[in-house]
Write a structure and sequence with these properties.
single chain, 115 residues, mainly beta, 7-stranded mixed β-sheet, 4-stranded antiparallel β-sheet, globular
Length: 115
């Protein structure tokens, strides 16, 4: 059973930064793309960023230029560096991997951007 565990969320003022981490169990993290999603209250879960096994990245237009997705395959960990945060970035953030054995989600970490 694959487990994904997010950490790093919290309360930050507008314009501030946070770095989220996603630690994966097992040995096959490096073989699959990793995604970060977010879900704000009353809204659908949306894809924020993707990093492929080879390190190619893609971002939602709303975060392009402010967020950076990365991964450390040696540590089975993915990251989301979030800069110049806005109140509209407030959401629960989830990491995700789609593998042949199934779709895996972490439990989520709350990010609140407020003054």
């Amino acid at each position: 059973q694959v487990q994904l565990v997010e950490s790093g969320g919290g309360l930050v003022q507008p314009g501030g930064s946070l770095k989220l981490s996603c630690a994966a169990s097992g040995s096959f993290f490096r073989l699959y793309a990793m995604n970060w999603y977010r879900q704000a209250p009353g809204k659908q879960r949306e894809l924020v960023a993707t990093i492929t096994r080879d390190g190619s990245t893609n971002y939602a237009d709303s975060v392009k230029g402010r967020f950076t997705i990365s991964r450390d395959n040696a540590k089975n960990t993915g990251f989301l560096q979030m800069n110049r945060l806005k109140p509209e970035d407030t959401a629960v953030y989830y990491c995700n991997q789609n593998r042949p054995t199934g779709t895996y989600w972490g439990q989520g970490t709350q990010v609140t951007v407020s003054s």
